[in-house]
Each structure stands twice: as structure tokens, then as C-alpha cells.
Amino acid sequence: MTKFNELNLNPKVLKAIEEAGYESPTPIQEGAIPAALEGRDVLGIAQTGTGKTASFTLPMITLLARGRARARMPRSLVLCPTRELAAQVAENFDTYAKHLKLTKALLIGGVSFKEQDALIDRGVDVLIATPGRLLDHFERGKLLLTGVQIMVVDEADRMLDMGFIPDIERIFSLTPFTRQTLFFSATMASEIERITDTFLSAPTRVEVARQATASETIEQGVVMFKGGRRDREASAKRKVLRALIDAEGDKCTNAIIFCNRKTDVDICAKSLKKYGYDAAAIHGDLDQSQRMKTLDGFRDGSLRLLVASDVAARGLDVPSVSHVFNFDVPGHPEDYVHRIGRTGRAGRDGKAITICSGRDEKALAAIEKLIQKDIPRIDNPVKTEEPKEDAPKPERKAKPTDAKKGESRKNDRKKDKEPKGRGRRDDKSPAVVGMGDHLPSFIALSFDERRAG
Fold first, then answer.
1. Which of 88, 388, 428, 443 has the most CB atoms at less than 10 Å from its CB?
2. Pair 275, 281: CB distance under 8 Å
């Protein structure tokens, strides 16, 4: 088995790797690091969790150890689709470059431009950014990309899903054509393949087998949920979730709860807090400081339940998550593997439970086809009660006196509504035909006088 010290990395980088507790590279690292150190373009096809962040940070640090940063002209650029992934890449640089005097800046939304401008003005060796915030700085005239020697695009398929591909193409056009490009993606959609053909020069292709199976250390289960009335389905589903958490007891030390939509993330987190559970939400619409505070709380154990959208399924490394609950079945089968892969890491045991409603059964079948196994069905911990037929209410028998009083009141009201002094008929006054109900009495009398005359 290859060791890190056989990959020609900088001795100070090797020291940091050893202090982090690693000895042997993963397959993606073993394939990508030597090619990157030779200055070649690299196209890496690998799922999250295969160690690809280190496969570009380690050679970048080694290559950047020589040279000096210039103001507003970063020497390297790493593009990430989300703030969380960008922050995690920045942490990797801090870990592996701690014995070298390299500077970095993190350009993400939710942080003031002023702080980021100050870092860029001093000059940075490594610029880690989301595409939108990077272009914001460029358009404000605060940043030049003509000094970029190494450019990395991480999670390219996620970039495609989020609509960043036009931004990526524009950023490529702002960098020198002599740059070295490291490009990583879990899948190779036609749009991504077109970009690699355009912007990469004779790349070394390193492909790691797709992560189509979950770790054997993860116990899986699915609850088949029948919602009943549509207006009460979401509430009933949240009740099932609470019962599943309670059923795990002390074994559930912490858990990530995945929802498909951001609105459901918020609703689910608020509902859990309302019932006394230690829970918080994380998704793309929250303020960056709040997102980082929530993640830090979950990592250090002060927060037990993290309710998340799929932002948290890709790339976030929390070492000891005891449980994953899929409040919703994910629409893409690969996302299921990403989600439950947050538990059972590094050989630990983990448990993943999914709640599946009737409309999600096709998505569940696609997941089982991908992982090539049936997920065991488990009983719904909430017993559904059959609706009881309402007993007919006994009819109230009115007393004779009550009935007479009622008729009397009706007659009184009718009399009150009749017009007084207008067109009223009596035995002595014949009806006037065709003149309406509101004929004044003096006109009626004049007709009677003419007839008599």
C-alpha cells in the first residue's frame, strides 16, 4: 500500500499529515496527487467522502510553498458550490499548511465585503470562494484573477444543479490560459463534459468507483407511512419522527434529520423545539454566521438534532453521528447514499431510518435498485386509530307550549313586516289589479269613487 511519504509532498506538509493521524492516501488521492505535482491538469470523478479535498489541497500547498502573494492577485483559486463546503476546504488548508507561511481568504456570502477586501488587499496565496461572491468582488474592482496559477473546481455536478455553470465559464475566461486546472465531480453530465473539454488540457483522468452502496456498519430501516387526510399529513408525519427518535432512546446521541425542502426544514425544526427537543435548522437561506454557529454546536455536541436540507449531505464531515433520519425520501437515489453516509463513519456503527409516504414509493424503489438490496421495513411507532362513527344525536322533542309560543312569534314578525297604510286590503276595499303592492290608499279610493260614479 502506498504511503504519503512516497508521493513527493513537501516535508512540512507530510509533518502536518502525520499530526492529523493519516498514513496512507485514498484511491483518489493516490491517483490525483502525483499528476498534480507534475503540473498536469486533473479530472477527478469521485463521490463525496472519498477524500478528494485532500487530493487537491496537499499538492497545491506543496506547489505554492515556493513564491509570494501579491496584493489583489491570488496565486490559486478554489471554487465551491456552497458556503459550508468552502469553509470546510479552508479548514483543510489550515490543517495541512500550518507549518508553512501561506495566506488564504474565504469569499462567501453572509460575511461583510470590508473584511474580505482587507484580506485580498494584503495578498493571498489561496482564494477559496463561491462563484457568486467571487464575481461580486471582481465587478467591484477589488480582485484580479490574472495571477492564478492553479484553479480548482470542486463538486462540479453540484455547481450544475445550482445553475453556476455560466459563472464558472466566465471565471475560467478571467484566468490565464497557462493555469493548471484540477476539476472534480461525482458524475459527468454532458454539460460538465463540455466544460472539461474546453478548459482542461490533456487531463489525467482519475476515476473512483461510484459509491452505490452504503457502509455495512449502517443499520437501515424504512417506515411506510400512510398520511390519511391531506391537511393533517405533515403533522402526523412529524409525530412519527418524534416517536422514532424517542424509540431510539439513549442510543440516539445525535442525529441529522433530512428534509427535501427548505420550508420543511424550518417547520420540522420549530416543531421539534416546540415539543422540547434540542434541534436547529440549517439550509441555504439562513445567515452564514447562524449556519456556522449551528454546525459548530452540532460538531461540539452542544446541539443534539440538526435538521438539514441536502446542503449538509455533501461534504460536511461530522465524525460521530449516531443516527440519520430521512423525514423525506430523497428524489435522487445517490442523495440517499450521501445522506446516510453522515453516520457510521470511520468504522463506527450507525443507524438510518427513512419515513416513506405513498407518493414516495417509486423513489424508494429506485434507491433499493441503486444499493442492490431491500431496506428492511419497520413498524410505525405511532398506532393509527380507526375513526369512530359519530352516534346520531337524539332529536329534541319540543314541548307543546314551546311550539305554540314559536308560532305566535312567527305570526307577530309577519304582521310587523306588513306595510301599514299602503295598499292594505280589507273586506270593504276591492283589490286594485296591476298597480303593485305599494299603491297609496287615497289613489285606490279615487278609483273606487269613479267606479261608483
1. 88
2. no
β-bridge partners, 323? 255, 351
Side-by-side strand order, sheet with 218-225: 279-282, 305-308, 255-258, 323-326, 350-357, 218-225, 377-378
12-49 pLDDT, tens digit each: 999 999 998 888 998 999 999 999 999 999 999 886 66
In tens, the pLDDT along 103-133 reads 999 999 878 899 899 999 999 999 999 999 9
**Global pTM value:** 0.64
Cα(317)–Cα(436) distance, integer angstroms: 88
C-alpha distances in angstroms, 184 versus 155, 238, 355, 440?
A: 6, 37, 32, 96
Domain(s) labelled CATH 3.40.50.300 in the chain stretch across 4-207, 218-378
Q: Share the mean pLDDT of the chain.
A: 83
Rounded to 5°, angle at Cα 187 from 41 and 284: 100
pLDDT at 440: 58
| Rounded Cα gap, residues 76 and 56, in angstroms | 11
Are the C-beta atoms of 51 and 139 separated by less than 8 Å? no
Write down the CATH superfamily of domain 4-207.
P-loop containing nucleotide triphosphate hydrolases (3.40.50.300)
